[in-house]
Design a protein that fits this description.
It is globular, with a radius of gyration of 21 Å. The chain has a three-stranded antiparallel beta sheet. It folds into two domains: 62 residues, Orthogonal Bundle (Arc Repressor Mutant, subunit A), CATH 1.10.10; 145 residues, Four Helix Bundle (Hemerythrin (Met), subunit A). The protein is mainly alpha-helical.
Length: 246
């Protein structure tokens, strides 16, 4: 995934400059934004499991002190996406096949609970964002060639966030959030062996079905649509993982 360019601070205005002359600065990058950027790199396997991450290198890239970078890395460690150990540093974590299967099983079970744990209607802004995601997926499929993985992953992330806004239970929402980011990196890893256009088409169907359910506030259907598409995706990925071609 291309890294977001960040303009470094320019030096202070030199003596003799006219009073009121503008000093160019780059916008501050928050720990939350750094966290999102690093998480996306892990998801799309720009940082595959086992990758060592350097606080100082990342601080230099973002043009910041090490403190906000350290805060972002600690948050990733809380999510289980990196391991921080004295004498070793920061390393992107891995899961074995059993752990991946367990994580996906939990995702399926929790998705089915979306419509049963204080669900709430989406705001007009969320519904507009969902329509924009749908338009973005259609645009991906309208382009020639294989869809760009970074663009696809961004749309998946936005859709995931919108669906999570239906959940009224903070605890359920947090569990689903953590499991999503634990598993999506392995899915995108398998995508290198899959037909990306076919996967985007399956995602299009999920977004369309979810939109129809949300238009009538059928939150139970939203949960089961999510669960069913995860289950079907798992079947496709298992075939690829086991070297079986349908």
């Amino acid at each position: 995934m291309p890294r977001t360019p960040i303009t470094r601070r320019k030096g202070r205005a030199r003596a003799g400059q006219k009073s009121g002359a503008a000093t160019a600065t780059r916008p501050a990058v928050s720990p939350a934004k750094i966290y999102e950027l690093l998480r996306q790199r892990i998801a799309t396997r720009s940082y595959p499991p086992g990758t060592r991450l350097s606080e100082s290198d990342l601080a230099a890239e973002f043009g910041l002190s090490r403190t906000p970078v350290r805060q972002a890395l600690q948050r990733l460690a809380t999510d289980g996406l990196v391991s921080i150990k004295n004498g070793v540093g920061v390393t992107v974590t891995d899961l074995d096949r059993v752990e991946i299967d367990q994580a996906y099983y939990l995702r399926c079970e929790l998705a089915a609970m979306i419509g049963h744990t204080a669900p709430r209607p989406l705001s007009d802004d969320d519904l507009a964002d969902l329509a924009d995601v749908l338009a973005g997926v259609k645009a991906l499929l309208a382009r020639r060639g294989a869809p760009v993985l970074a663009d696809f992953s961004e749309l998946c992330e936005r859709f995931h966030n919108i669906v999570n806004n239906v959940i009224g239970s903070r605890m359920l929402r947090d569990f689903i959030e953590i499991l999503y980011h634990q598993t999506d990196r392995f899915w995108f890893g398998w995508m290198s062996e899959a037909d990306t256009r076919t996967e985007v088409t399956h995602f299009l169907h999920e977004v369309e079905e979810t939109q129809r359910a949300l238009e009538i506030n059928d939150f139970e259907a939203v949960g089961y649509i999510r669960r069913n598409h995860i289950t079907m995706m798992l079947a496709r990925m298992a075939a690829l993982r086991d070297g079986v071609r349908g």
